[in-house]
Amino acid sequence: METKPSEIVIELDNVEKCFGQQKVLNGVSLQVRAGTTTVIVGASGQGKSVILKHMLGLMRPDSGRVVVFGQDLAQSNTKQLRDIRSNFGVLFQNVALFDSMSVYDNVALPLRERTHKSEADIRVDVEEKLALMGLEDHGAKFPAQLSGGMQKRVGLARALVLNPRVVFFDEPTTGLDVSKSNEIYRLFFETQARLNYTAVIVSHDVPKIFKLSDVVALMADGKLQGCMSPEAFQLSDNPLIRSFVLETMGPIYSSETEETLLYETL
Ligand SMILES: Nc1ncnc2c1ncn2[C@@H]1O[C@H](COP(=O)(O)OP(=O)(O)O)[C@@H](O)[C@H]1O
Ligand SMILES: [Mg+2]
User: Fold this and answer.
1) 173 plus 120 within the same structural domain
2) Which domain does 168 fall in, by range?
3) Is pTM beyond 0.85 here?
4) Of the ligands numbered here, which is closest to the C-alpha atom of 40?
5) Cα–Cα distance between 53 and 243 in angstroms, integer?
6) How much is the average pLDDT of 129-155?
7) Residue 258 reports pLDDT greater than 60
8) Is the minimum distance from the CB of 50 to ligand 1 under 6 angstroms?
9) Does one domain contain both 188 and 249?
10) For residue 61, how far is its CA from the centre of ligand 2 (angstroms)?
11) Is residue 2 in a domain?
């Protein structure tokens, strides 16, 4: 049965961006549909984070358009941008938890800053998200008392506490070993199934999330190459994608790792 594609939540249309002489984005185009997971891969320094910053409205394109929820960000005023961003959840590489605040207060922060909820209602929301991340007994601790994996889970709880429509992850498992980063992705996809958010993930851990994503794109030569299903991406004859697939995923294909199992079910 054909299912109708869901609405477009984010659209990049021929976005260009230079920093001085360096052209980082040279005609980036992408459509992100509601409820899907898009994974952007590519070598360091190619402009993956710069793409996310454009989607978040933190950077403006030199030319081209960034449209979020049908609204051109360049045409949006400060209040409109704030309203758009209130639908976003963000987890960056360094997590950026506040060291002087407890886990509970870190997760409560977006609710205190962005809503008028009472402390009693905030407690309900925070406890729900902590439980979702298996952190129900750790609310009173401080970030420094937690392992790296637990800190990421706190970051994930905080990114999701406002029940965002779109969640952005920039290299969310940086610094974690294989089993810890698999755990983060497992939690991520479980909560996505439950909360139904749209996800844009920048990752170099391609194999772990490959099968679970809807669209994969390679950032290379200033453009997003591919923007296709993981199956099609893997078989693409685009030379840039081919060499990426061979270099990044080749060794994993032939090894007996957990990731191999993911491929076998493709
Ligand atoms: N605010 C900025 N000012 C100047 N150069 C920047 C800025 N942000 C990113 N760049 C440059 O753009 C390029 C792409 O950066 P980035 O998107 O962070 O790469 P990555 O793909 O590793 O996420 C890099 O060469 C970086 O130095
Ligand atoms: Mg980056």
Assistant:
1) no
2) 8-87+164-264
3) yes
4) 1
5) 27
6) 93
7) no
8) yes
9) yes
10) 17
11) no
